[in-house]
Amino acid sequence: MPKYVAFLRAINVGGRRIKMDQLRHLFETLRFSNVETFIASGNVIFDSTFKNTRALEKKIGDYLQDALGYKVVTFIRAATELAAIAHYKPFSDAELEAEGNSLYIGFLADSPGDDVQQKLRLLTTRVDDFHIYKRELYWLCRKQIRESEVSGALLEKTLGMPATLRNSTTVRKIASKYS
Questions:
Q1: pTM surpassing 0.85?
Q2: Exposed end of the chain (fewer CB within 10 Å): N or C?
């Protein structure tokens, strides 16, 4: 049975709090098995017989909206797919390993077009650099993220679609544990 990772947007941010045992229970109610959460930021690992990840994203998103009372955009990646995402190197080793630099991975529903990639280039500064590969946005931040002029909201506006960001360290930990 395939193992999936759900990256949920709007979980435990902005005053919307949900305990991880409650979140696991919601996924078990959907008849997923081996449900686990990874840190309290909306990362849910589970097994499912579903093969269509788009249908799975919709099913989970609709159910969570009904259960929680607010929209929870859901991004699904197969555990095997996550391993490739975690090991992809969009920037040089020197940049990725430089002290103070952090890499964030934004999960998207679709691969953005060339026009969006051009808009992202306009956001590039000495502090922030961006790279799109398939359905992921890689954001190299050369300061603390809170010191950047770029925010998740600005990225979503630029992309023209919802996204959810995770630190690459978190993504690598999930990938190494579950793929």
A1: yes
A2: N
Residue 89 and residue 30 share a domain: no
Quick: pLDDT tens for 8-57.
Answer: 998 877 777 899 999 999 999 999 999 999 988 899 999 999 999 999 99
CATH of the domain at 74: 3.30.70.1280
CA 101 to CA 113: how far, in whole Å?
A: 27
Which residues lie closer than 8 Å to 42 by C-beta, 6 or more apart? Answer: 6, 7, 8, 9, 10, 11, 12, 23, 72, 164
CATH no. for residue 95?
A: 3.30.70
Q: Is residue 132 part of a domain?
A: yes
Question: In this structure, is the dihedral angle defined by the CA atoms of residues 164, 72, 6 and 45, taken in order, positive or negative?
Answer: positive
- CB-based contacts of 127, cutoff 8 Å, min separation 6: 141, 142, 143, 147, 148, 149
Q: Give the total number of structural domains in the chain.
A: 2
- Tell me: do 50 and 90 sit in the same domain: no
